[in-house]
């Protein structure tokens, strides 16, 4: 295997788990560009999916309704069908959220304010992630919408 091909494979493996919904990686000293796709939470393996699903349920049960009340937000089919945020999470080796990247947000017909975005994330920064999610990057949807 030539050295350039080996280098390409190593770069691909290293960047496969970087936290952006899609990362374009340019390999130094070549004209090669590589698109890396980050998995969505529903694409996680069984144990990883179960761990995330439990965390998400806890957040929905304990935080989401509080956030809606604090911000005087109510969903209805006549003008506010959804309140959610899509983000890429990067979890470190100790189970802490290293950082997140906002992918999309929807508050009725608008985007989130920075304050609402931060409020959605607060719980995740102070709550340890289960071992199954350590050293992982994946995209999540926080919140929900109505089927009208």
Would you mind describing this structure in some detail?
By secondary structure, this protein is an alpha+beta fold. The protein folds into 2 domains: 3-37, no CATH class; 41-145, Fusion Protein Consisting Of Minor Coat Protein, Glycine Rich Linker, Tola, And A His Tag, Chain: A, Domain 2 (2-Layer Sandwich). 34% of the residues lie in helices and 28% in strands. It has helices spanning 3-15, 46-70, 114-126, and strands at 22-26, 33-37, 82-91, 97-107, 136-145. Strand 3 and strand 4 form a beta hairpin. The longest helix has 25 residues, at 46-70. The protein starts with a helix and ends with a strand.
Name the CATH class of the largest domain.
Answer: Alpha Beta
Report the major sheet.
Answer: 3 strands, antiparallel
CATH topology of the largest domain, which one?
Fusion Protein Consisting Of Minor Coat Protein, Glycine Rich Linker, Tola, And A His Tag, Chain: A, Domain 2
Structural class by secondary-structure content: alpha+beta
* CA-based shape: globular
Number of helices: 3
Instruction: Please tell me the overall pLDDT.
Output: 84
Total DSSP E strands: 5
CATH architectural grouping of the largest domain: 2-Layer Sandwich
Please give the radius of gyration in angstroms: 18 Å
Oligomer: single chain
Strand content: 25-35%
Strand arrangement in the largest pleated sheet = 4-3-5
Task: State the order of secondary-structure elements, H for helix, E for strand.
Answer: HEEHEEHE
**Spans of at least 5 consecutive residues with low confidence:** 3-21
Tally of separate domains: 2
How far do the termini sit from each other?
Answer: 56 Å
Q: Portion of residues in helices?
A: 25-40%
């Amino acid at each position: 295997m030539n050295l350039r091909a080996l280098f390409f494979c190593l770069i691909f493996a290293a960047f496969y788990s970087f936290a952006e919904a899609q990362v374009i990686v340019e390999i130094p000293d070549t004209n090669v560009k590589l698109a890396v796709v980050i998995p969505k939470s529903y694409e996680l393996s069984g144990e990883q999916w179960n761990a995330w699903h439990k965390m998400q349920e806890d957040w929905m049960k304990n935080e989401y309704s509080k956030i809606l009340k604090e911000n005087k937000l109510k969903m209805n089919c006549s003008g506010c069908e959804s309140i959610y945020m899509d983000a890429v999470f990067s979890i470190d080796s100790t189970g802490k959220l290293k950082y997140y990247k906002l992918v999309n947000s929807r508050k009725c017909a608008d985007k989130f304010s920075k304050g609402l975005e931060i409020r959605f994330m607060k719980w995740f920064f102070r709550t340890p992630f289960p071992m199954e999610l350590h050293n992982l990057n994946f995209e999540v949807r926080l919140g929900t919408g109505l089927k009208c």
